[in-house]
Amino acid sequence: MMRQYELLERVSAYKPDVDENLLNKAYVYAMQKHGSQTRANGDPYFSHPLEVAAILTDLRLDEATIAVALLHDTIEDTDATRKEIDELFGEDIGALVEGLTKLKRIDMVSKEARQGENLRRLLLAVADDVRVLLVKLADRLHNMRTLNFVPVEKRARIAQETMDIYAPLAGRMGIQDIRDELEHLSFMHLNPTAFKTVTEHLEELHEKNVDLISSIEQDLSTKLQDHKIAASVTSREKRAYSVFRKMERRALSFEQLSDIFGFRIIVDTTEDCYRALGIVHTSWSTVPGRFKDYISTPKGNGYQSIHTTVVGPSNERVELQIRTAEMNAVAEHGIAAHALYKDVTNGDASSGADRVDWDSGVYGWLRSTIALLAEGDNPDEFLEHTKLELFLDQVFCFTPKGRLIALPRGATPIDFAYAVHTELGDSCVGCKINGRIMPVVTELHNGDEVDVIRAKGQVPPTAWESIAVTGKARAAIRRATKKAVQEQYSGLGTTILERAFERAGKTYSVDVLQSGLKRLARKSVEEVLAAVGRGELISSDVVKAVYPDYQDERVTQKSKSFASDGWFGMKGAAGIIFKVPGRKKSKPKSTAASIPIRGHSKDQSVRFAPDGGAVPGDRIVGIMTPGEGITIYPIQSPALQAFEDRNDQWLDVRWDIDENNHERFPARLVVTAINEPGTLAKIADLVARNDGNIHSLEMVTTAADFTKMQIDVEVWDLKHLNRLIREIRGLKIVSRVERVNG
Ligand code: MN
User: Fold this and answer.
1) Which candidate among 87, 256, 649, 709 keeps its CA 20 to 30 Å from the CA of 607?
2) Number of other residues whose CB lies within 10 A of the CB of residue 496
């Protein structure tokens, strides 16, 4: 096991001003925390974080990252806490260690190989700092190196996951060394037979050609020397996995691949690269179509090199890579190497003006790496952020069984349920997020585990259609509610028609209605009932269609009809205000102390938007107005549109309700119901029986068969309000209930 001073020496070799105290503290803390824990092979557990740290010193990372490597398993596997780490090492390091703790979840859920791409995205989304990814890669590399000690049944899964996710990620970050080793180790465990065959073949081939290889090497060196180019020429060992992949991909036999020899020529300057290329091309004939200039056009991950293939002295094919030492460092250690290479070689590694001039220093390359990872996005924009917000438009959540569900940002448990299964969405009545019961309108965050609570015979509330953000959920809600709504409308139509016929003194039956279909230009009785229920068809017109001689008294006395119906047992017309006797107007809530909201400082005055109707459980937002303080709106309030462009006025606020809350909150409903005596009484009675207070009521419009009223109720919270809405909606006389916000 590496000693404390050895680790320090390694870091100070490339970073002379290393913060020794930080490294020493992290070393001792992690060692003490892991204590007597051991790994599968019997080694002290601490040897693992130490090896991970050592891998990262090869990448020449800063001491903060090395410290995080030492601490990376402490929160998950010991009694260490985020708080303690924050206190000892600062919040930055605490956040990085926590990021790694979160990533552990990924290892638990990746059984489904098909989710590779999602997992890769989750990895990037959860890891909000590229250093988390680097530590994670090193962690995985060490785990792969010691995979032999893991129970055999677990190895294939871990190796597959490494091949699917971590090796490509290392490649994407330009860390070829780690990528190669991860692929090598995964291949060994995933396909031991092929691994053994290819490796043995390669060894044989090497033995056989050892003289040929050194003669080519010699030949190349001499030619370059003759032209005064300082160069080191090395033969490249073929890697078993890349040979195997070529065989698979191009359906080639090993023999067909065996006549290729690889060499790397490393020179000082970009200019020398092209001069060396010229010499190679004039000395040997080239294989057509194999020349690639990645110096003038670097690969997406920053890789630069010239590739060419020539026919060598004994007619064998010789693959050449020509690059500068700096380019080589970048190819092996990723873009990280670039800035650090400059530091170590005292800055003079000028490789030409065509290279992006990264900010020097550690954070410079971190940012560059982020930009590269964000390939396709606008890099300028990205450089302004040090966070890895690669998938701003997506969130990744888990089912209780660990299945990963990718959703658009802003998605709710409703979307989640429909994403899992339509049936799950239709029967959803509530949810638990990370084990806690939460409203189904809660916005989901990366890594949330969502447990959908179901009930049988449930119809999703129509309001969900506007809450859901995914097309799948919306379409499914519409389908499910359409059927239920259709049934409700025809039931309502039946009620309206029965009464209309009764008023007219005529007989009502389905057969009777049948006779009027033609005159009504409707195809079926069902259609007539639904049309009446929806208010598209007036009941008296139906009566007239069936009994053409019938004269509607109500139409002739239209002006008096409403009052004479005795709606409330009092005279009135559309537009009246109905006050419930004995109730005071709800008290104005204007001081910070009396308003149960968190997220503002105590000296700011807080009030609810007058027509906002926010109730606990609503997602809320505060709008700051200079001189007026903070106004709270529910997130669905249309009034918020006015503030859309004024980001600086928006304030994140949360409810701060304790269990003993005895305060009610106002909400506004618009109810459309059958226009007949007793309707209001039924609704008022229902509200009262459900512990709701009607604060005021206003008739909005009345039509022949329907009346629309605006009811201001006072409720305890969103759950209570939703129950009220459900109950009112369940009344036979009611066609529609909507919650509205001013
Ligand atoms: Mn680990």
Assistant:
1) 709
2) 26
